[in-house]
From TrEMBL, chain A:
Family note: Belongs to the CPA3 antiporters (TC 2.A.63) subunit B family.
Organism expressing this protein natively: Methylorubrum zatmanii
Location of region: Disordered: 245-268
Protein name in the entry: MnhB domain-containing protein
Record membrane topology: Multi-pass membrane protein
Automatic annotation (TrEMBL), chain B:
Keyword Transmembrane: yes
Transmembrane segments: 6-26, 33-56, 76-101
Taxonomic placement: Bacteria, Pseudomonadati, Pseudomonadota, Alphaproteobacteria, Hyphomicrobiales
InterPro entries to which the protein is assigned, alphabetical: CPA3_antiporter_subunitC, NUOK/Mnh_C1-like
Family statement: Belongs to the CPA3 antiporters (TC 2.A.63) subunit C family.
Protein name, per record: Sodium:proton antiporter
Membrane topology term: Multi-pass membrane protein
Pfam families in the record: Oxidored_q2
Keyword Transmembrane helix listed: yes
UniProt keywords, alphabetically: Cell membrane, Membrane, Transmembrane, Transmembrane helix
Subcellular location: Cell membrane
Amino acid sequence: MTPRQRLVLLGLAALVLMPAVMRIALALPAFGAPEAELGQAMNALVPGLRHVTNMVAAVNFDLRGIDTLGEEGMLLCAVTGTTVLLRGARGESGRERAGHLPGRPVTPRADATVLVCRIAATLTLLFGLSVALHGMTTPGGGFQGGVIVASGLLLLYLGEGYEGWRALIPPPVLAVLEGGGAVLFVLCAGLPLLAGHPALQNLLPLGEPKDLYSGGLMVVVNAAVALSVTGSFGLLLVEFLEETREPADDPVPEDTLPEDPLPDEAER
Amino acid sequence: MSALSLLDALPWLVAVWLFAVGLYGIATSRHCVHLVGCLTVCQSATYVLLLGIGYVRGAGPPVFYDHPPGTPAVDPVVQALVLTDIVVGAAVSALLLALAIQVQKRRGTLDPQALRPLRPPPSSLE
């Protein structure tokens, strides 16, 4: 099918669908005046029931916790798939050096870059940790905090170079973080089942509102999600950065090439 | 159809427009990475729709740290949905990009038009 034919087909489909879409768009409740009761009921009841102040975290980690468990599984599957796809084509021998084009000079990092990245990475990691820990009280939580920490890891790469980065954060640690977080979540959901309660039943003491420990089981689930998201995104970064190596630099298993004598002096 | 009701429906129309733009990009795409980007645009249409549906005029965030419980707040359920979806969506985009890398390695092209899935890859013909 040529692009023109595809466009014509898309146009025809749009012509058929457009009246229905317009009908629905105009029949939806007016912007700013929703008719859904569930969210408002949660806003009214949850602060008293669960002793937390962040309703979004309460929805994610308690009231719709099973839903989040599914999302967690999707995250795990997506990251596993990415890792398998990239590693399968590349082989697993992890030589901790970045590849570079032969003949192209490797300029060392400026001291200013290293300094700025070290400062910024520390601050970013701390900020991510804080956002993740305060998920029950203020906007934040495991998902956001985990992503912020993972972007801090990227800043570490920018400052330290590939070799130093791999030494600081070995990929097995990231894999353990990811899998361990998911296992912790499953345990949180499953252990109440063994005791004869519904899954994810909040059996821990709820704590005080506005406290770092508030929400009982939610704190554990939040930590599990934070670990898992940090591990996932860290692992994605490692795998995609590995892709930047020259294929000759890292022979795939069935390849019987000897250790190639590229005269590269690593990063700096 | 008064002007007011059209204004009330504006966020939904923006969501429809975003989705349509993404779909146009997918249909006319000549590059797999561009395809993934278009899919992300389609996805963001759902964020606009969900967050728009949860918005309550004059209400604050559903976080009762500074203001006591009971003050008007927007719907927390849709925000939770969007939040998890952004994170999972980013991971799924990474998966799709990894697929694109594999396509480039095996077929030597990223143009969906040039891909013929049912033929053996050129390397196995030798």
